[in-house]
Design goal:
about 150 residues
């Protein structure tokens, strides 16, 4: 919307807009459509304001009764489970993520602490700091390889 329309729209509604304003509306179809739409909305709002004074306010317990009926309807249809709201489902999602994190860390630490159980891993776990004889090492190696079963 152009500046002239913004500046003189109130004057247009009162009926005393400038000739420049009307010339602009004749040459700019977008502004003419916007002014027509805004004028119609303004008239509707003024009409609503006039009629709103004659409308009585609902009784004080009206909103509580409506809310109670909505809850009853949800419970009778079996959808009451799902009416717990967004905070409940956020908590469920957070708890699920927490459980996944705990289980994942358990599996990672368990895998790292177990080490390998295959023949190559068993042979690689040889303690070089312990006193040993080379012939005994060869015997242990042969027994380990012979007794290994997949």
């Amino acid at each position: 919307m152009h500046q002239i329309v913004e500046n003189e729209f109130d004057r247009y509604l009162r009926g005393d807009a400038s000739a420049e304003f009307h010339d602009h509306l004749r040459t700019c179809p977008k502004c003419a459509a916007d002014v027509t739409e805004m004028a119609a909305l303004t008239l509707l709002l003024q009409d609503f304001k006039c009629n709103a004074d004659s409308i009585e306010a609902p009784p004080p317990d009206f909103y509580n009764r409506v809310a109670g009926r909505i809850v009853e309807r949800n419970e009778t249809r079996g959808w009451g489970i799902f009416s717990m709201g967004a905070p409940f489902f956020r908590r469920v999602a957070f708890a699920s993520l927490l459980v996944l994190a705990v289980m994942g860390s358990f599996l990672v630490t368990r895998e790292a602490s177990e080490g390998g159980t295959d023949a190559v891993s068993l042979i690689a776990q040889h303690d070089v700091t312990a006193a040993h004889e080379e012939s005994a090492d060869w015997d242990r190696l042969l027994v380990t390889l012979a007794s290994y079963q997949e």
